[in-house]
Protein: Large ribosomal subunit protein bL21
Amino acid sequence: MVYAVVRAGGRQEKVEVGTIVVLDRIQADKDGNVELAPVLLVDGDKITHDAKALADVKVVAEVLNDLRGPKIVIQKFKNKTGYKKRQGHRQEQTRIKITSIN
Structure:
């Protein structure tokens, strides 16, 4: 069993080949692929976490689609002053599928 922990969008995700992951919006190359930086690689009993050894490892993913996350509502209120503020936000996201770990 081969899996990797990759750095993506300020977070770390555990991925295997075929895993579908939703990340913050990232741009794909002209072929629609993205290369992610590995932090840890597990290949059976062999665990690799050295930066020099991980420089040779490539985790390639295919971009499936771009989407937007759920709407969150930000409300601020101060009592007895008449101050009210309401704001919404939807995070830009990308759904990717891991195609290879080399």
Remarks:
- The radius of gyration is 19 Å.
